[in-house]
Design goal:
Bound molecules: 1,3-dihydroxyacetonephosphate
Largest sheet: 8 strands, parallel, barrel
Low-confidence stretches: none
Distance between the termini: 14 Å
Strand content: 15-25%
Radius of gyration: 18 Å
Order of helices and strands: HEHEHHEHEHEEEHEHEHEHHH
Oligomer: single chain
Strand order of the largest sheet: 1-2-3-4-5-8-9-10
Number of strands: 10
Length: 287
């Protein structure tokens, strides 16, 4: 059964480790992530962007697929199904469809409007026992075609949003989605520390988990980050494994195209990436 991310993140914050959010795009990715979490006895959050939700034939299809897998694969670790960077309408649609967690990304609204919309969604999620993530300070890079620069959040604004009763807060600390440019100055631990001091027990979320050096990840966890989002790294490992398989020409032998064979190396590659991240984040054995 899907669970809200609240309890797993409270435990992570108290135990100084982070739960990974891995974005899903299809059946193979979902299966790879769930099997790895179960094998490593790690809690996990499945992230779904609005674009990926559309690709997978809508939120209800995603909920049906994930619930089916939890049962058929006999998954016992805590799993949350979470809307990633949701719009106000997207968050409502996911709540309706049966997601156990949503992110409302109101970072592009003026702070007053972000507060108002977040408040409304917090009330709905509280009533239904779902977790909700809010964002302050835009996270840069490209997400579903929208490109932004990595900002640092204002700690006062973070406190204002945290006080609305959200479960977790994504604060921009110079992190960006996708690959980091060579001249990236690194995470702003000064900002993270200031946000953590203002928001206390609130689990903080680090987006753009791909390509952040291990020592920075560990320092971020020590300063209150309890959830780390990874997407691009799974895409890259899937792509590389699939490319190698095609180049080897194996799929062209015999019966020709077989999706079960073609997608298998990429699926294994995602398992390896997820395992590496769960070990780095310290969530192994914490289910
Ligand atoms: P990356 O694609 O950089 O791993 O970031 C993922 C993310 O933050 C999803 O919200």
């Amino acid at each position: 059964m899907l669970v809200s991310a609240e309890e797993m993140l409270k435990k992570a914050k108290a135990g100084k480790y982070a739960v990974g959010q891995f974005n899903i795009n299809n059946l193979e990715w979902t299966k790879a992530i769930l099997l790895t979490a179960e094998e490593l006895k790690s809690p996990v959050i499945l992230g779904v962007s609005e674009g990926a939700g559309k690709y997978m034939c809508g939120y209800k299809t995603v909920v049906g697929m994930v619930n089916g897998m939890l049962e058929e694969l006999k998954i016992t670790v805590p799993v949350a199904l979470h809307l990633d960077h949701g719009s106000y309408e997207g968050a409502k649609a996911c709540i309706e469809a049966g997601f156990s967690s949503v992110m409302f990304d109101g970072s592009h609204y003026p702070i007053e409007e972000n507060v108002e919309k977040t408040k409304e969604l917090v009330a709905i999620c509280k009533e239904k026992g779902l977790s909700i993530e809010a964002e302050v300070g835009s996270i840069g890079g490209e997400e579903d075609g929208v490109v932004g620069a990595g900002e640092c959040a204002d700690p006062e604004e973070c406190k204002m949003i945290a006080d609305l009763g959200v479960t977790m807060l994504a604060a921009g600390i110079g992190n960006i989605h996708g690959k980091y440019p060579a001249n990236w100055p690194g995470l702003s631990f000064e900002t993270l520390d200031a946000v953590q001091q203002k928001t206390g027990e609130m689990p903080l979320v680090l987006h753009g988990g791909t390509g952040i050096p291990a020592d920075m990840i560990q320092k971020a966890i020590s300063l209150g980050v309890s959830k780390i989002n990874v997407n691009t790294e799974c895409q890259l490992s899937f792509q590389e494994a699939t490319r190698k398989y095609i180049e080897a020409g194996k799929d062209l032998e015999g019966k020709g195209f077989d999706p079960r064979k073609l997608l298998a190396p990429g699926t294994e590659a995602i398992k390896a990436t997820v395992k590496e991240k769960m070990e780095l984040f310290g969530s192994v054995g914490k289910a």
